Prior knowledge:
By secondary structure, the protein is mostly helical. The chain is built from five helices and no strands. The chain starts with a helix and ends in an 8-residue tail after the last helix.
Amino acid sequence: xxxxxxxxxxxxxxxxxxxxxxxxxxxxxxxxxxxxxxxxxxxxxxxxxxxxxxxxxxxxxxxxxxxxxxxxxxxxx
Length: 77
């Protein structure tokens, strides 16, 4: 299954198009450059690959929820 996905749908399942960047996270969520940004981007990529996130708005909601769930910070709103 993984090899099929790699060859047949690489941007959908293996390397989904990045909906948010580290710069976006710094601007919209008032984060400082850190390992946290990498953790968030990896979680976002996994959620995209699973089909849980399909667009930028859903990505923003995911990140806000991730930050709140993981107790990393209070998100400005």
